[in-house]
Amino acid sequence: MEGMEYFYELYTGLPRGGPGDNASTRKAFSYLKNLPSELLILDIGCGPGMQTLELARISKGTIIALDNYQPFLDSLQQNAVKEGFEKRIIIKNQSMLEMDFINGTFDLIWSEGALYQMGFQNGLRKCYQLLKNGGYLAVTEGVLLKPNAPADAKKFWEEYPEVKDIEGNIHVIKQERFDVIAHFTLPTSSWTEQYYAPLEKQVRILKKKYQGNMIALQVFARSEKEIETYKKNSEYVGYEFFLMQKHEVY
After folding, report:
1. For residue range 174-220, what is the model confidence (pLDDT) as tens digits?
2. Which CATH class, in words, describes the domain spanning 19-141+160-187+236-245?
3. Distance from first CA to last CA of the chain, Å, rounded?
4. Distance of alpha carbon 105 from alpha carbon 156, whole angstroms
5. CB of 225 within 8 A of CB of 215?
6. Which of 92, 98, 107, 99 is closest to 41 using CA atoms?
7. How much is the pLDDT for 235?
8. At 152, is the pLDDT very low, low, confident or very high (cuts 50, 70, 90)?
């Protein structure tokens, strides 16, 4: 995409790289039972790491936070030090498409709003390999919440043609040999308050900074259009939090 430097500047410094909230992270974690005392977690596409920090607070585990954009990782590292988690949050700059972990390494893999970049089914397949037998996977995935969505709602996912309804995603999850433990839809506030409100503020600042720069303004206009489209169609589009467990295979 032309103007990626402006896209990254837009997102640098935001508390989140996508929809989510700490209450939903905690709710998702509460469904995971009989976790080992020395829990090893992989957070794929961690971004600035709001959910990584929350996992550190509630899990007492060690978390490998993986992303390929260093400014996000720098922000997470600073916050981890502030909260005393620097020994439990391990920063790794690597693309999720190039992960080189040994299969069967992790007790839990977490990915909020990021796994789609691998393709949902391909991402599930890779996570299955990286998890221990009986390990858990927690993922938020874009879904169509209602049938007969208006054209605007379908266009919201136009850069993501694989989007399905909730049952369609559950079918894919089962195809990849996971058991669905639970699932729930992120509240609208995860989008409007936690994600879009800081993003809109950043857009206003950068539009003034880059006044007259058509490439930068086009990047910011795409974000404004996304926000407008979501607010008009929030009953039809959203993120579903899926909690699943790898079938034990011996």
Report:
1. 999 999 999 999 999 999 999 999 999 999 999 999 999 999 999 99
2. alpha beta
3. 45
4. 36
5. no
6. 107
7. 94
8. confident
